[in-house]
Amino acid sequence: MPRPLIDLLWRDHPDAPAGGRRGPRARVATGDVVATATRLADAHGLAAVTIRTLAAELDVSTMSVYTHVNSRDDLLVLMADAAHATVELPAFGRQGWRSRVRAVADANRALLARHTWLLDVADERTALGPGTIAKYDHELRALTPLDLDAVTQDAALTFVLDFVRASARAAVPTAGAGELAAHWPEWGVRLASYLGGEFGLAQQVGAAAGEAQQGTRDPDFAWRFGLARVLDGLAGLAGA
Amino acid sequence: MPRPLIDLLWRDHPDAPAGGRRGPRARVATGDVVATATRLADAHGLAAVTIRTLAAELDVSTMSVYTHVNSRDDLLVLMADAAHATVELPAFGRQGWRSRVRAVADANRALLARHTWLLDVADERTALGPGTIAKYDHELRALTPLDLDAVTQDAALTFVLDFVRASARAAVPTAGAGELAAHWPEWGVRLASYLGGEFGLAQQVGAAAGEAQQGTRDPDFAWRFGLARVLDGLAGLAGA
DNA sequence: CTGTACGCCGTACAACGTACAGTGTCATGA
DNA sequence: TCATGACACTGTACGTTGTACGGCGTACAG
Questions:
Q1: Is pLDDT at A1 greater than 90 in this prediction?
Q2: Which top CATH class is B86-173+218-239?
Q3: CB < 7 Å to strand D — which of 65-124 in chain A?
Q4: CB contact, 8 Å: B145 with chain A?
Q5: Smallest CA–C1' separation from B48: which nucleotide?
Q6: Which CATH number fits domain A5-83: 3.10.20.30, 1.10.10.60, 3.65.10.10, 3.40.50.1240?
Q7: pLDDT for residue A21
Q8: Residues B67-99: pLDDT tens digits?
Q9: What is the DSSP code string of A188-218?
């Protein structure tokens, strides 16, 4: 059984337990497992990260993976923290809170675009990792100009990041999209007949929104719209 | 093989195909399957909704379930639409947009509190269901006082609902929470030693936020905070 | 009465995470 | 130097999941 998760998360820290030196040298390190799993997830989605394919990719036996990682759930935490550690954290300098928040939002949007699978990792233990904590610390600084108390500052950051996550999620084709597209010719007419004249507003707005979404015209309208709303929403805190 | 999903979604509509009258009478209807699955999901989470336990609950054989539902994925869509159909859609009357939006947010919060598993259903085909469409139509009306164009109106509603979803998700203990709590005595001190004096802001704010979250003091601070931000954010659209 | 559409069911398969019981290898304490 | 024991690694096996497939019996249409 490998070291506990907390030590695996901090495995690069000087104080991290190195583990005994006995026995054969490990052919792969925990970092390799995490990196390979991340590559798989980037390429084929989180569902493609199975212990078996991961082991094959690492050229070790299936069960060998458990030498470096306690469980698949732990692995996801390690992957998430490693991903968080990759985001750049440039000092904000003299920027005002608006451009700071904008920078944070953009960075997270890019992160989630690179690693869509992060949307499917919801494990509280991620908060224990060095990458996650460093990122959190940095992002809190985006809000210091607003001079909020601690609880409010945390809530404000959560508010921003939740928007980014939702926005990123909308950009991903969800389950059943293929089915829908495949049957749309039949189902579309069927649906129209069911609807008849009812729900006119929904039909009109839905059609317009759907058209705008897949048309090349302004692909990220929703992003700019939402981010503007977020900033306007936070603006009320500036004067308080 | 049962009827296609679109017809199952609209199975209560007068024009829905009734299916032939031959063969033995069905012991359960699609609606029963959906209702039972919903009960299971409410009580034990979506993971507890397996075809086998569902069949046992309905007192039929495992494979019989597939007579009434095409697949588990389809079932989730049916469950989601049925849940959407339960929300009340009271006319807004003379209310202004602020209280309308507030009502929509509250209704969705209550819905997600009743059926937490809705957070785990992300299937685009849900949008085809009568309950979902009726709900969408109603919620769009919350924004009509703002007099937005169709695309913006849809984006604004999405903005509100995404906030509610994120808020609801935060209220649910995520995976690994048990593990975390179990090992916290050891891991807490370990983490403190790893952190040392670094990331002071994160430590301070994180501690305050964590304390406030589990303290009885103001359990839904984040909700009120976020909703206020959302409303403030939308306010900018009123004057345009 | 007969054909057939339809509800129901038992068996079986592939894939998953992972527990368990090893086997072999190497640094170390005697 | 040698025995000890820690450690990386592996094969087998179990329980669980969704569901494809084929068969069986029922009750209505002709």
A1: no
A2: mainly alpha
A3: 66-68
A4: no
A5: D17
A6: 1.10.10.60
A7: 78
A8: 999 999 999 999 999 999 999 999 999 999 999
A9: HHHHHHHHTTS-HHHHHHHHHHHHHHHSSS-
